[in-house]
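Practice problem: predict the structure.
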Amino acid sequence: MNSLIGIICSHQWEDPQRFYVNSAYVHAVAAAGGTPVLIPHQEESQLENILEQISGLLVPGGVDLDPIYFDQELHPKSGIIDPWRDQSDLVLIRGALARSIPILAICRGCQVLNVACGGSLIQDIESQIRQPIKHRQEAPRWYPTHEIAIAADSLLARIYGAATIRVNSFHHQALDQIAPGFRVTARTSDGVVEAIESIDNRFVLGVQWHPELMAGHDPGVSKLFAHFVAAAKNGR
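Answer:
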């Protein structure tokens, strides 16, 4: 039986009746042998019930996280905020961690994972980082536009089998203070954090790029999702 992988839905704030997930996440999980289960925003008790059924949690990209969750005011260059998505992410991430459910958190998901566990964010890279490289690419979404350096003794290094890889990039915020229980396992040349993972050997991994969009162009993507789905199957 395939592992049930919960994928958190975004809320279309212009139309309160609509939730959505980009299909690339669904396809990547299914290709790795998992069964995608979409999770829209609902009452916390219902989210907790869902956590009892799933074997893995995928936290997708999306809009900016409300900085109230890391004790800051909105930066002038902050973007759209979705309070429904914020609430769902935080409840599901913390619930998954409490149940030792494997987590793969992508882009915004990586940022919320860090905040959910006590970390903070840089709200705007261009105005808060000295001499940043371009983190919001203007290229095909699957195309890698910058390099990251991967820590040698990390889960990410074991998955990709490389010290450096090139990735795509679609973010203007980044991790700042790293949450207790996590370590940085990849960075760009300007110092921006590109990956964090749990220090206790569980599969709890956050990546700042969008591997699901690189499927079919980067062989590392299939290995990443395969490791995630395998961890979910073994965990449950």
